[in-house]
Amino acid sequence: MRRLGSRGPRLAPLPLLLLLLAACCVRCDELDDLIGSVEAVVDEVAARASGLFKGRFPEVGKCACTQHACANDFDASDKCHEELGGASICKDCPGQKLDFTKSFVLTPPLTDLESLGDSLKDSICTFRGMDDVFANATDEFGVRAWTYVATTNGVMRSWPGHAMERGEDVPAGEGEEDLGNCQSYDPRLRPWYVAATSGPKDVVMVIDTSGSMLTADGELFGDFRSRWEITKEALLALLGTFGISDYINLVEFNDEVKVLATGKLLQAKEDEIALLRDEVQTIEPLGGTDFRLGLEAAFDLLINATTRSIEDEEPTSSRCQKVILFLTDGEDCTVSDSKCSMPVLANETGVDSVLNFIEKKQTELEALGSQRAHLFTFSFGLEADDEIPKEMACAHEGVWNRILSDDDPLVALNAYTSYLASRRGDANVIWSRTYDDAFGLGTVVTAAKPIYGPTTSKGEQGGLIGVVGHDVRIEDFTAKAPGFQVVISRFISRGVQCIPIEFSGCELQLLRGEEAECPEIFDDAKCYFFAATGDYYMAPKMPLLNYVEAKAFCEDQGGFLAEIDEELEENLMAGIASNAGSWVGLTFNNSEWKWEQSGRVEDSRSDIWTVLSDTSGRGGETCAVIDRRGVVQNVHPKKCQDKARFICEFVGPGLPKGCKEGDTIRVNDDYEYNVRPLSTCRPEEESLRDATAISPAAKGLTKDQVICPFGEPKSTFEVRCCKDCKL
């Protein structure tokens, strides 16, 4: 098999390609008209869906049941139709059972229909009025494929109505047991959904493949798969979510590094994705953990792709959003006393060495005129250190998440698309890559568009509601187009719409949530005044001192090593703390942790402690530092003789002797945050929630008002094949 890093046949130079395209200009115009007709359908469907959502409150209360695609008793769908060809299970029999009078719904995997949640009931009933626009919005091909709307909670309404495979026709583990082993389906993981919500992007997946990834965490629960086996399954599925406007690659690292497609990003087409999947299958975890190796390879891919896209004729980058997905289950060599490939400088900590390295690579990327990369980081397992991954995400407009043994890592890894989707309210129709239709149409391409809630009371864009899509069979396009590659190039050119991702301080925090909330990024100042506490604070960058020296420094200035008296104070102190941690006035003595200034005892189970903190004092770590990994769970024990930065606190209201008004930042009601505390974002949060709130009437709806009766079990053949069809 040809290695991904080897050179394949060169593409035709761009001028020659343009001449070839010009020669078939007339056919291209015809193709553009066909594509335009499909996009018009999507725009019409999206407009109706947005309108229904905006006026959903009174309509949801009038909800009548919808057929579930896993049900068995249908009405109009018993009629045989040949418009969409035949179902594979029906062999050579022409046509299949379809319902052109109404759409069917699918609920997300593992949904218990007997206790249907209010959110799902609301989604099913909100879009019940789509059937007329589905039926009337036809493109120039006529009725040749599916049209649908899928919501952020996983509900999908599809037209024309058609039944899903079930029973023995569904492979083990892929069906919903409570629904007669009906084929499980999550639209949020399909290429068209991801393409519409996240837009064009360059994505590098950076995966820790150290020996610890062979650990099995779920043995107590009967799951004997290793972390790597679980991650590998998620990666293989994640590769299937990318669209033709995306450029991707995968980096595996331990104490060495390997780029699966050397030196370049791959356009996410079927052949390239298949090659990456083959490479993932060959990975064997071993060795240690060196974050900078993996990150260097990832940034070099983004930098090289950006450079080549400017200089070369061959497209090598989306020239749009840059994303790094970084997953680790361990502790970096810089903080674990293991050997690293790059030295840690004498004047920096291990944590700083990683974060400074990332900033250096981001600067190189920006120098090319590129956007900075968003870093989405994941700590796999309860024992995975979260210090550097959390701080990486906070410093680089990303989100951190912890993946536990019973979580679905694919859902976590794919969550970055929701982050990118949150600012794509002005997006046009985008085209997915070609893929095999899950409902039997063969190779299709989807035109899709995200839909959003109404503008909030604060004037902000409403939240993402879902995606509308319309399929076209590739055979229908190629029958009228001058060649398959021209079709694909047209889809790519129409799908590239780069919308800058810019967040306000609250928007970013609301996306992260409480567990991954990041501290403020304060401008440099000698002193800080926190109105919430009435006190002043100093956080000198130099000198680095041990605990006793730091305590003496603060006392010489007329203050003391800072104490945390309330959650907001912890939040603000994290904002002026160093990446690797700054001394606070908390020490371990006589089997308890006590704040030196106030004498208050801090419970060893307090939520100020980081997840992996050993508060027993047995390891000689009897002093404490606060770092920037979050606004809570950011304090951890440290050996008192270690050198670190520190935070001094001075009781107000008077200005401390070491501070001047001109070099003091006052954090009060007039202060403009770069990254606002979630506690100050409640008006924005409530406004966004109100704009996308569940309809009050949904709570009172019964299951039978929402989902029509299923009837007696039937086979796939019985629900899909025409009555006169014989096997």
From TrEMBL:
Statement: the UniProt record of this protein carries the keyword Calcium: no
Listed SMART domains: CLECT, VWA
Pfam family, one: VWA_2
Domain spans labelled C-type lectin: 523-649
Domain VWFA: from-to ranges: 202-420
Stored PROSITE patterns: C_TYPE_LECTIN_2, PROKAR_LIPOPROTEIN, VWFA
Signal peptide positions on this chain: 1-28
Keyword match Signal: yes
Keywords: Signal
Gene Ontology molecular function: voltage-gated calcium channel activity
GO cellular component, one term: voltage-gated calcium channel complex
Protein name: VWFA domain-containing protein
Organism in which the protein naturally occurs: Ostreobium quekettii
